[in-house]
Amino acid sequence: MEQLWKNAHLYGGNLSYVEQLYETYLMDPNAVPEEWRDEFDRLPKVGEQISQDIPHSTIREHFRYLSKNQNRSRPVEVSSVSSEHEKKQVLVLRMINAYRVRGHQVADIDPLNLLKREPVPDLDLRFHGLSEADNDTVFQLGSLFFGPEEAPLKEIVEDLKQTYCSTVGAEYMHIVDTQEKRWLQSRLEPVRCHPVLGAEERSHILERLTAAEGLEKYLGSRYAGAKRFGLEGGESLIPLMDELIQRAGRDGAREVVIGMAHRGRLNVLVNIFGKNPAELFGEFEGKKLIESSGDVKYHQGFSSNVMTAGGEVHLAMAFNPSHLEIVSPVVEGSVRARQDRREDPVGSTVVPVSIHGDAAFAGQGVVMETFQMSQTRAYKTGGTIHIVINNQVGFTTSRKEDSRSSEYCTDVAKMVQAPILHVNGDDPEAVRFVTQVALDYRNEFKKDVVIDLVCYRRRGHNEADEPSGTQPLMYAQIKKQKSTRELYAKRLVEASVITEAQSKEMEKEYRAALESGEHVAKSLVREPNTELFVDWRPYLGHEWSFECDTGVDLKLLQELAVKVNEVPEGFAVQRQVQKIYEDRRRMAAGAMEVNWGFAETMAYATLLAEGYPVRLTGQDVGRGTFSHRHAVLHDQKTARCYVPLQNLADDQPRMTIFDSYLSEEAVLAFEYGYATTIPNALVIWEAQFGDFANGAQVVIDQFITSGEQKWGRLCGLTMLLPHGFEGQGPEHSSARLERFLQLCAEHNIQVCTPTTPAQIFHLLRRQVARPLRKPLVVMSPKSLLRHKQATSTLEELAQGSFQPVIPEVDQLDPGKVNRLVLCGGKVYYDLYNRRAELGLENVAIVRIEQLYPFPEAILEETIAQYTNLESVVWCQEEPMNQGAWYCSQHHMRNVLHRHNPALHLHGIGRPHAAAPAVGYISVHLEQQEALVNEALNG
């Protein structure tokens, strides 16, 4: 250190040289001269609890300080530079960094003052070798954005406490990017996190708090004891949302999509979205408002338009079940779809907002999955504003050691280096400020940011609960706690911003508006611009039908087949992939029968040619888990990618294909949100193995299969789930067909088991070619992707449609047939080949390719030709307690009863089992041979 000060004249004028040396030293100490390495080794170090950035930043500030001294008109003597004051200057800079890193740990963010904080030694003057005796000593502020370049130590500490230890606790020093940290410092430090507001701004905050509190009081008195999951204790959310939406609109956003769980939802719908209170009262009184099963009022979505300084903004509240955080990735999918529709790859025009509860944010894994997708190509949306309504209790769990293992409920956000702004909910001005910072950060860096709104829950988990039984001390304090509005109104009266009478008048006006059934959202647009809406009208009111012509002109099919198999000149294709493309060129020329990969690719190509966007995501979708697709080519020399489907025409619709990160729950929820927002697109999620859909069961149960009946939400999402018993054990065999069939009712979804390339071609095309929008679940094959018999012709692609039932194709004499085998999926080929081996002419095999909605009329027509039937069986590969047997047998029996009441249906498959399949190939083969033989021979 002494050497540095002796050479102060050197790096005072050569600051950049010394800084470059220090940068090099940090990366590789051996890369700098020995005399500099020795001196750098002696620089003051900071404990591990402080950011690793601090030793570097501290010495940089010292370099800057020395440089300023050396550039003064009168040179500073070396002896004065090496004085005790200069040594303390470095310690002050280190203390400043300590406040930036750990100030939030002593911040006044709990309105109940129950939050117990451990002492933080890093914030004590003595920890840094300073004392009260230095209070009046003037020090350089270094990188602080406090205004002056120097100030007494006492003022520096006071300003640091005001900025980092008051009602705002900012966590951002975990961010690696220095530019982002400096940007945040430039926003927080000049105003000490508490900008001075004018009377009009403060009155507006009070008006929004009045609305928030007024609705809860009114509902509490009119519907006493009814569940509403009220916002009481967290009323600052309403001015927060108001500021967020208004500022977003000012900055150019045209849409804001919001997802949130129960607490405060009704308040947001009425006071922010402008839902008519009369409609809400009707829901409390149990009035039937929609022709469906419906859902509880605090799950309902909503949309409206509000006016901002930047123009009209469309607001959308996502429908949400009780699975709390699962709505987060649904919101992201909806936002990405809206951004794609607006041709906005940056994410400026549509802003996602996720409002969380503290316990769910810390406890549910889908939160992590959603953060993980935030910067990936397939799922990024330009940054999400996360708002945690931190009630400091989850249902009845409030002890920190029970609710989480991290210090804060928001610590999971650090995984993507999101800044976290903790704020005391009883300081609405601070809430407004952090909202501005959060949105501006999102717009500046296109990354996620978290607002931790620390508040409390004045009632129990719901209004029927008595919370003091489990949280006696917390609720003893809450009973004494004045409301946020009451505290803020008193603050404004004392500051002479308003009078007590004006405050009371605000309350009366709001209650009068509620009682008269008026809209109470001030910025609501009564005649909205419909161009901001997604137009679903062409897809409404269509009844189920099996008929849909999905044929394509043969000439167009061949032209597209040529384009989709073209590879740029000089592009080095891997050897096996080259063979696949050579075969596809032969298929396009009619010299070779069509396989699965070709037919599927042509389904996408023809849809794109007809103007339909296509989006395909999932693990390994570019290549295909079983290497059949190869829609994304990789140059073997440069690793650059080429997607033929994206290069069919200059003006073609969007073709999106991305390998997803290793998630099922969040990814499937994202695609659901996307599909519910762009109705004219083919949106596909493919599981690596069908079994992996298990990890997304919440999405399947709560959204895909029931969303239309609960909320009236149409969705055309397609799920490709590889399914088939190939001897690969219990985790790689079954997509759990039985679970999907059990969820089938009211024509809610489609479940299909296609077995030929032509079938998948027409099935995928049918999904968007007809205006009906229903989720499609495809039990897609594995071995059939290359099965020599699972082929089709170009003509079969060009003509016809998807066949829900495929009749016997061999020239069997129907009069000789006395046994009928019904089946679905790849077991058909095993049955067909064994029948040929045995030379059986009395057994017909009929494939049911659509299991729901079940094609009873088509099946009846198919088997009408068999007038001499004596036995009918259903054959499946799955164990008999799984697969299609239990959920579909009544449909088949209905058909048989109409054909011949004397016939009885029998089921054949693997023995009942707890696991989907066996783990030994020898046992698998024995079971497969047994079920095939039994099906054919009885």
From TrEMBL:
Q: Which cofactor does it need?
A: thiamine diphosphate
Can the keyword Transmembrane be found in this entry's annotation? no
InterPro entries to which the protein is assigned, alphabetical? 2-oxogl_dehyd_N (IPR032106), 2oxoglutarate_DH_E1 (IPR011603), DH_E1 (IPR001017), KGD_C_sf (IPR042179), ODO-1/KGD_C (IPR031717), THDP-binding (IPR029061), Transketolase-like_Pyr-bd (IPR005475)
**Reactions it catalyzes:** N(6)-[(R)-lipoyl]-L-lysyl-[protein] + 2-oxoglutarate + H(+) = N(6)-[(R)-S(8)-succinyldihydrolipoyl]-L-lysyl-[protein] + CO2
Annotated ranges, domain Transketolase-like pyrimidine-binding: 594-787
Looking at the UniProt record for this protein, which Gene Ontology cellular component terms does it annotate, in alphabetical order? cytosol; oxoglutarate dehydrogenase complex
**A Pfam match:** Transket_pyr
Q: Coiled coil located at which positions? A: none
Kindly give the SUPFAM superfamilies that the UniProt entry links to this protein. Thiamin diphosphate-binding fold (THDP-binding) (SSF52518)
> Entry's Gene3D superfamilies?
3.40.50.12470, 3.40.50.970, Multifunctional 2-oxoglutarate metabolism enzyme, C-terminal domain, TPP helical domain
Q: Which UniProt keywords apply?
A: Glycolysis, Oxidoreductase, Thiamine pyrophosphate
Q: How does it assemble?
A: Homodimer. Part of the 2-oxoglutarate dehydrogenase (OGDH) complex composed of E1 (2-oxoglutarate dehydrogenase), E2 (dihydrolipoamide succinyltransferase) and E3 (dihydrolipoamide dehydrogenase); the complex contains multiple copies of the three enzymatic components (E1, E2 and E3).
Cross-referenced NCBIfam families: 2oxo_dh_E1 (TIGR00239), PRK09404.1 (NF006914), PRK12270.1 (NF008907)
Q: Which family does it belong to?
A: Belongs to the alpha-ketoglutarate dehydrogenase family.
Please state what the protein is called: 2-oxoglutarate dehydrogenase E1 component
Q: Which organism is it from?
A: Marinobacterium nitratireducens
The gene that this protein is the product of is sucA
